[in-house]
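User: Thanks for the earlier help. One more: TNase-like domain-containing protein. Can you show the sequence and predicted structure together?

Assistant: Of course, both are below.
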Amino acid sequence: MVFSDFIGCTKKAFHVVVSAFFYICMFSFALTASAIEPCGLKGASETVKWDFVADGDTLWLKDGRKIRFASINTPEIAHEQKAAEPLGDKASLVLKQLLSDSQKIRIQVVGKDHYGRVLAHPFLMGGQSIESLLIEKGLGYQLFSEDSDPYRNCLTLQEAEARKGKRGVWSKNPVLDVRADRLKPGFRILSGKVVKVSSPKKSGFLWMEMDGPVVIRVPKSFIDTKSFIDTEWLRNLVGQRIEFRGWLVDRREKNKGGQRYKRWIIGIYSQDGIRKLD
């Protein structure tokens, strides 16, 4: 074999290797893409006109309804003499930008919250989930309610990607240790060890005590029902470290009586709101 023939064979081999590598990459990408559920509109929806943005997860409609996004919580903007939380103003600004191309959006109403706001999944007119677009930018946290959520798996994947990429709220670890951190009321993601699980007969709740001043409250009516909360699964968490999220409430006033309570309480309404760390 002359040198020119050797070069020709080498070039052919190189092209074969490159082509094989290209197809392997494309195939891998296809598998990855197909495994991620698209955050797009599913089923029937209502077309509405939005009026103005209240914050990153709340807006007013022209018909007077106040819409609270059902599956996401964004950082707070300044209100009631409280300073804005980090990225609160940005979340609000990005929502305005997402809505800027059209006065219309689509919504799927799921109920009302205790403030009387309409809980809904919002979508751009093209069907893209607004909740998903905010979560993938790291501008909000996923919420887990007791109701079935057709977008839960998709939003969980989006949040995992934002968390892995340290985008937005994940740029600094927002998870607070129940023992070491100074806790404040509001939406929080916490971590700690479960030390006790109890279900008093006269209480409508199952209680999970943590190794700090925090107790988790789970409504008994949600256990082994539509919320997919399994009793045995909860009891088996004793001695394990978990991550959980929700609205933290200060019970300091209750401790002024004879009975002592752990100061902080947080409600969990879906098993997806608890993640095992061990």
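User: Great, one quick takeaway?

Assistant: Confidence is low (pLDDT under 50) at residues 13-35.
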